[in-house]
C-alpha cells in the first residue's frame, strides 16, 4: 500500500517562510507527477504547484515567484518551499502523487496525503 505523509506545516507571520515535505512510502511502486494542493476554509481544493518526473514545474498564479516545488526521486519526496507568506495562503496543504505499482504494465492512480495546516497571521 502506498502512502503519502506530509510534514512542515505550522503557524507563521506574514512575510515569513515555511517548508513542507512529503514522503511516499510503500513497496514496489513508481512515482509519476507530484504536486501540492491546498484548501482554505469554505473554499474548494486548488492546485498550488506540480512537478513532473523530469523536474518541469507549474505554479498557480498567486504563488508563482514565492513558492518553489522540488522533488528528490531517490528519496521519494516532494517539497514545497513557501516564502513571503500571506494571510491568504492559510489553508490545509495536501501532497499529491500519481503512483503505479510494479511490475509493469504501469497503471497510475492518484494518492493523497492527509494534509498539513499552514496558518499565516497578519
Helical residue percent band: under 10%
Low-confidence stretches: none
What does the radius of gyration come to?
Answer: 14 Å
Query: In percent terms, what proportion of residues is strand?
Result: over 45%
Shape: elongated
| Number of β-strand runs | 11
Major beta-sheet overview: 7 strands, mixed
Tell me the distance between the termini: 40 Å
Residue-averaged pLDDT: 96
Order of helices and strands: EEEEEEEEEEE
Total of helices: 0
- Classify the secondary structure makeup into a structural class: mainly beta
Secondary structure layout:
Layout lengths: L2 E5 L2 E4 L4 E8 L3 E11 L6 E6 L5 E3 L7 E6 L4 E6 L8 E11 L6 E5 L3 E6 L1
Parallel strand pairs: 2-11
Antiparallel strand pairs: 1-3, 3-8, 4-5, 4-9, 5-6, 7-8, 9-10, 9-11
Explain what you see.
The protein has 122 residues and is mainly β. 0% of the residues lie in helices and 58% in strands. It has strands spanning 3-7, 10-13, 18-25, 29-39, 46-51, 57-59, 67-72, 77-82, 91-101, 108-112, 116-121. The strands form two sheets. Strands 2, 4, 5, 6, 9, 10 and 11 form a seven-stranded mixed beta sheet that branches. The protein is elongated. The model has no long low-confidence stretch (mean pLDDT 96).
Jot down its keywords.
122 residues; mainly beta; seven-stranded mixed β-sheet; four-stranded antiparallel β-sheet; 11 strands
Condensed summary:
This protein is mostly beta strands and 122 residues long. The chain has no helices and 11 strands.
Amino acid at each position: 500500500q502506498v502512502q503519502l505523509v506530509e510534514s512542515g506545516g505550522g503557524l507563521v507571520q506574514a512575510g515569513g517562510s515555511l517548508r513542507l515535505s512529503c514522503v511516499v512510502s510503500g513497496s514496489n511502486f513508481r512515482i509519476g507527477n507530484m504536486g501540492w494542493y491546498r484548501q482554505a476554509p469554505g473554499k474548494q481544493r486548488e492546485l498550488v504547484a506540480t512537478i513532473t518526473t523530469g523536474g518541469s514545474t507549474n505554479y498557480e498564479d498567486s504563488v508563482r515567484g514565492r513558492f518553489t516545488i522540488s522533488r528528490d526521486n531517490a528519496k521519494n519526496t516532494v517539497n514545497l518551499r513557501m516564502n513571503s507568506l500571506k494571510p491568504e495562503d492559510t489553508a490545509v496543504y495536501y501532497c499529491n502523487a500519481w503512483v503505479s505499482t510494479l511490475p509493469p504494465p504501469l497503471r497510475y492512480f492518484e494518492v493523497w496525503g492527509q494534509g498539513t495546516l499552514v496558518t499565516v497571521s497578519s
